[in-house]
Amino acid sequence: MAATYTVTTRTPASSMAMISALVIVAILFAAPYFASRGLIQDLFFILTMLTLAQFWNLLAGYGGLVSVGQQAFVGLGAYALYGMVILMGLDPIISILFAGIAALVLAVPTAFFAFRLQGAYFAIGTWVIAEVARLSVAQWQAVGGGTGTSLPRSALREMMLVGWIESAFDVRASAARDILTYWLALVLAVATIAGIYWLLRSKPGLALAAVRDNTEAARSVGVDAGRMKWFVFLTSACGTGLAGGLIYLQKARISPDAAFSVTDWTAYVIFIVVIGGIGTIEGPILGVLIFFLLQSVLADYGSWYLMVLGLIGISVMLFAPRGLWGLISERTGIQLFPVRRRLSGGTIKKREG
Amino acid sequence: MIWVDTILQGVLLGGLYALFAAGLSLVFGIMRLVNLAHGDLIVFGAYLILIVVSVLGLHPFLAAFIAAPVMFVFGWVLQKAVLNRTLGDDILPPLLVTFGLSIVIQNGLLEAFSADSQRISMGPLETASVSIGPISAGVLPLLTFGSAVLVIVALNRLFYRTAIGRAFRATSDDPTTASLMGIRPDRVFATATAIAMLVVTIAALYLGTRANFDPNVGPARLIYAFEAVIIGGLGSLWGTLAGGIIIGVAQTVGAAINPEWQILAGHVAFLVVLLVRPRGLFPRGN
Amino acid sequence: MVLLETHGLTARYGDFQALFGVDARLEAGETVAIIGANGAGKTTLMRSITGVLRNAAEQIRHKGVEIGHLPADTIMKRGIAMVPEGRKLFPSLSVEENLIIGGQNKRGRDLGDRIDSMIARLTGAPDPMELSAGHDGVGYWTLETIYDLFPILKERRHSPGTALSGGQQQMVAIGRALMSNPDVLLCDEISLGLAPVVIRDIYAALPKIRESGASVIVVEQDIGQAMAVADRVYCMMEGRVTLQGRPSDISRDDIHAAYFGEAA
User: Fold this and answer.
1) Whose CA is closest to A241, among A128, A64, A109, A96?
2) Which of A51, A305, A336, C127 is buried most, with the most CB atoms less than 10 Å from its CB?
């Protein structure tokens, strides 16, 4: 007698969430038609930070790899883009791909070194590599050395699709560039979330959860923990590099200290994930919105703002280690991106003897 | 001859890095806690000494004696009230909480003292030097190195010759069984961090008197300290001194070749050691 | 005089309840054995008494004082010492240091104790100094008397504790507990994994320990051993006391029933 069980990860809330997510993404795509340039820039900032946060969360929350050196990949990605545009004369949009590739290339030696360090020392190891990258790039005179450089006007003017957006939206070239980078950021963020969601629901995702919970046990059931770590680290680096390239394409000006800033590209990202809820896809989304609100309210207070952010991060870690999303889903049971498999259908019967 | 001088400067600089590292190493050895705010705590200590010097008009060495008990109590309370809550099997909470602490301390100092660089004045001692034949060394770097050796000797004695050292080692082995011996692990951890803060105060004294500092220099000090610990091998304080010397020599030699390479050369030396001796130069057997 | 007693002791690990209202007592001068199969709750009972597991205050009394809620270090300072299951020597400490550490943490020695005591008086919380009053940890047992009891340990005193044989490690663990001159000594599975001849050597120390003034609770899986040394026996099953009495009053069948939960 065949039982009619199905293994599913879907919940009613998640089906609703899927539909609302599609609606939200559609609205966001259409945003340039009705939103102001300032709003588009804010959304760009939110989306790129969200992408960075999702990748850091993949590393730390799912992979158990706490990196404080993600700025290495933001900076190197950005510099690769500048190098391609300035030295090779490539179109900036095409160069974004090289931002991802460069980060991936750097990630290989980084992982090679950092994986030799256990647990907490891994964190500082990644930081050392990021410092080495920053100091090395500062020696690269062709892209401005320690003082940095700007993207050439000609390259920005001739950037693909910008002309079309200019005429379609009847805006100036600089606003058109913002719209274009915004769309790219939206694509990157959606692809990141969809990709991570897909990964977590797939077989490798299960392996990942197993490795995070217990490396030894995971190995004993045939999960190659080392390979999972490499995979997660390289994926995160590549995605972080793409985001870095995009961020500095929009800024159109770069310097080593800014592009390899531990505060901007790692501290903020960690706070976003921790406050929102580490180890969930929903957490970074919630976190980035809170982060943006805090920044809008407190940005004028400079270092007070960072102090407050730090204190909130510490309090959340101490008193609600699963973050705000953890609190919400504990109270309500809601999961928008469920990854846990549940058995449904059929009826559990006692075995007949 | 210039190379001998360069290397001597590097060795003495290594003493400073060993001082940065000793507190980090102590805390990690006892409770497996990597304190990402360690560098910022050193900078915090330097500002504390600076305040005492400028308010009371004391000599920096005396000021450090006043700052030390303050730092001791601060470390005790910090561990007892905050960091003890983060200890456990999961490495995320201690890392993220100390990272948050690092950001809070940095920005608190920025708010209080601005980003201007400061220096604790030692008067004529700053430029004093002694010469043996053609080689000369600054008195202050020599004092730093001497202090590092003294701190390591003292910590080793504390660890292996005293009741509190026994309690440290026992608690590090097995906190539950230690509690059956009348030891309260959270108190042992608080004491360890408090003692680490005494070492931090000494490190802060030399950080502040040897060069300019500002609220943002902490993370780099953390990184040097960390590199010294890993090069030396976890758990060996003399190894940490050796690690500090390697970083110091790499930096001064790098700087002698090209001033812009100073920091980079230190990091590269660290990576090379990590490549050939992943467990450090003097690992302790398990 | 009742030295130590549990009254309706319940203990749980999260959702799992391990003890269901255990009543037991230890009279001054007595040796009591606790027997039972694996998972009967014997070790949980020890963990509760020593404060590794916290309970409701009134569920455990020591010399008439409620101690169920106290932390392990305060209970130890009151004079209840433990030889833990698996010996649990400190690998970073030599044999001699393992012994010394058992006796170095006496009441009021610790500055932290005094600070906690001060805070407690200010906030009205239970004062750890007060709670451990009446036991100064001084008595017959010193390094020398431990070495007299187990001469082999003197020879090996500078070795790391974990470099010794199982039996010698057990001697260190017992010596370590005695160093605080406890009035209650708890021994959890001290014969587990040891050869019979070694077990005999270890139990040979028991009369001397009783003579020094300590009352003893031994947790044993070896029923014969337990019956031989104990004045009274408790048998546990599934978190409850199923049988108690003097060894002479208990039949093999009684034990079998209490141990396995089925009529013999």
Assistant:
1) A96
2) A51
Interface with chain B: mutation pick from A57, A135, A264, A316, highest number of B CBs within 10 Å? A135
**At A222, which CATH number?**
1.10.3470
Print the domain residue range for A161. 8-344
Count of the separate structural domains present in chain B: 1
Selecting from B173, B180, B190 the residue whose C-beta is nearest the C-beta of C72 gives B180
Helix (H) or strand (E) holding C245: strand C240-245
- Would you state the pLDDT for residue A7? 66
Tokens 């805070």 belong to which residue? C119
pTM of the shown model: 0.90
Evaluate whether residue B146 is within a structural domain: yes
Side-chain half-sphere exposure of A208, counting CA atoms within 13 A: 28
Q: List pLDDT tens digits, range C210-254.
A: 999 999 999 998 888 889 999 999 999 999 999 999 998 988 888
Q: Is residue B69 part of a domain?
A: yes
Q: Please check whether residue A295 lies inside any domain of the structure.
A: yes
Quote the strand ranges of chain A, DSSP E.
Answer: 6-8, 149-150, 253-254, 342-344
A307 contacts on B by Cβ (under 8 Å) = 103-104, 107-108, 111
What mean pLDDT, rounded, does chain B reach? 93
- Give residue-wise pLDDT tens across range C5-31: 999 999 988 888 999 999 999 999 999
Q: Do A270 and B99 touch (CB under 8 A)?
A: yes
Q: Which residue of B has its CA nearest to C175?
A: B181
Residue B236 has pLDDT above 80, yes or no: yes
pLDDT (tens digit, 9 = 90+) per residue, A119-177? 778 988 999 999 999 999 999 999 999 999 999 988 888 888 888 888 888 888 889 99
Structure tokens belonging to residue A217: 């046990």
- Nearest residue on chain B to C102, judged by CA atoms? B181
Residue A279: CB atoms within 10 Å? 20
User: Which residue type sits at B163?
Assistant: A
**Residue B272 placed within a domain:** no
pLDDT of A350 over the 50 cut: no
The subunits that touch chain A, with at least 3 C-beta pairs less than 8 Å apart, are B
Residue numbers of the domain that contains C238: 2-260
Beta-ladder partners of C244: C234
User: For B32-119, where are the alpha helices, taking DSSP H only?
Assistant: 38-56, 60-81, 92-113
Asked if residue A189 belongs to a domain, the reply is: yes
Residue A58 is given by DSSP the state I
Q: Which residues of A touch B219 (CB under 8 A)?
A: 127, 262
Q: In what order do the strands lie in the sheet with C2-13?
A: C16-27, C2-13, C60-62, C65-66
Q: What angle do CA C243, C249, C250 make, to 5 degrees?
A: 45
Instruction: List the CATH number of the domain containing C122.
Output: 3.40.50.300
Tens digit of each residue's pLDDT (9 = 90 or more) over B170-197: 999 999 999 999 999 999 999 999 999 9
Nearest CA in chain B to C76: B182
First to last CA, chain A: 14
Q: Any idea what DSSP says for residue B216?
A: T
Residue whose C-alpha is closest to residue C96's, from B160, B26, B157: B160
Number of domains in chain C: 1
| Nearest CB neighbour to A321, from listed B93, B108, B275 | B93
Q: Which chains touch C (3 or more CB pairs under 8 A)?
A: B
Q: Domain total for chain A? A: 1
What gap in Å lies between CA B96 and CA B79, rounded to an integer?
A: 15
Contact indicator for A306, A313 with CB cutoff of 8 Å: no
Strand partners, C235: C35, C243
Q: Give the whole-angstrom CA distance, residue C19 versus residue C41.
A: 6
Token pair of A255 as six digits: 């310097």
B251 is a domain residue = no
Structural domain boundaries enclosing B165: 2-114+138-216
